Structure to design on (248 residues):
C-alpha cells in the first residue's frame, strides 16, 4: 500500500533529509587519499546525533554501522573499515537519519583524488541518471517513465543498471511501497501521485549489472569486479512536481 504524505508530513521528512544532506556536504571536501571509511562513519554518526537525530541503519536487521561505505566494485552495503582510501578509488557513502520518527535517505559517490577517465564517466553518467529520473517523477506520470529514462541513459553510455537492489518509498519506515528496479518501459508501472515520497537511487556499473553478495551477507559487489557508482535522493511528489528533500 502506498502511504501518501500530507504537506506537514513532507516537511517533517525534509528535516530528517536535511540532516543527511548536511552529512554529505560536510564529508565531501574531506574525502582524500588516506582517509578511512571508519573515519567517515564517525563523522556522520557524530553529526547525526548532534542534530538530535538517530543513525537509523545502526542495528537495522543486524547491521552495525551508521553508514554503508562501498568502494570501487562494491555496489552497496559495504562495511566501513580502517583501510585507507587510495588515489583513484571511488567510494559511495549511504546513510539514513531518523528525526522525530521520520526518515531521510541519501547516497553519494565520491572520487578519491585523481580517478581514471572511465571512473569519471561512470560517476557523471550515474548522476545524470538520477537527474533524468527525478525530472520524470511528475504527478500523473508512471514509474516506468522514471526508470526507463535511467535505463536508457545508462545503457546508451555502455553501462549496466543493477536490478537486484531496489529503490523504495520512505516515511516512518525505511522500505515502504513502492519498491522498484531502475529499469522499465515508458508509460508502464505505478501511477505517480501527489503526496508520494520515495527514493530514486540508480546503481550503475561499468560492466555487467549482475552482482554477488559477500559471505558477510551484506556487501554487494559487481559480478565481474568492475566499478559501480550510485547517487540517491529522497524526493516528494507535489502538485508542482518533484521536490528533492535531500538536496545538498
Amino acid at each position: 500500500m502506498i502511504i501518501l504524505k500530507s504537506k506537514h508530513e513532507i516537511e517533517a521528512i525534509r528535516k530528517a533529509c536535511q540532516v543527511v544532506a548536511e552529512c554529505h556536504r560536510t564529508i565531501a571536501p574531506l574525502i582524500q587519499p588516506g582517509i578511512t571509511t571508519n573515519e567517515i562513519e564517525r563523522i556522520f554518526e557524530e553529526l547525526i546525533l548532534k542534530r538530535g537525530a538517530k543513525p537509523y541503519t545502526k542495528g537495522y536487521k543486524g547491521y552495525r554501522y551508521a553508514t554503508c561505505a562501498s568502494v570501487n566494485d562494491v555496489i552497496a552495503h559495504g562495511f566501513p573499515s580502517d583501510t585507507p582510501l587510495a588515489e583513484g578509488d571511488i567510494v559511495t557513502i549511504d546513510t539514513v537519519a531518523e528525526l522525530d520518527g521520520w526518515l531521510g535517505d541519501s547516497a553519494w559517490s565520491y572520487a578519491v583524488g585523481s580517478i581514471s577517465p572511465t571512473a569519471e564517466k561512470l560517476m557523471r553518467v550515474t548522476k545524470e541518471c538520477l537527474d533524468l529520473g527525478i525530472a520524470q517523477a511528475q504527478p500523473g506520470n508512471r514509474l516506468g517513465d522514471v526508470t526507463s529514462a535511467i535505463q536508457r541513459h545508462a545503457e546508451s553510455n555502455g553501462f549496466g543498471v543493477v536490478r537486484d537492489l531496489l529503490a523504495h518509498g520512505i516515511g516512518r519506515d525505511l522500505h515502504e511501497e513502492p519498491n522498484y528496479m531502475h529499469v522499465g518501459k515508458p508509460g508502464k508501472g505505478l501511477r505517480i501521485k501527489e503526496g508520494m515520497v520515495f527514493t530514486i537511487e540508480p546503481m550503475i556499473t561499468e560492466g555487467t549489472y549482475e552482482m554477488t553478495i559477500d559471505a558477510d551477507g551484506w556487501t554487494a559487489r559487481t559480478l565481474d569486479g568492475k566499478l559501480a557508482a550510485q547517487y540517491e535522493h529522497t524526493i516528494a511528489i507535489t502538485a508542482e512536481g518533484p521536490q528533492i528533500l535531500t538536496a545538498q
In short: The two ends are 30 Å apart (CA to CA).
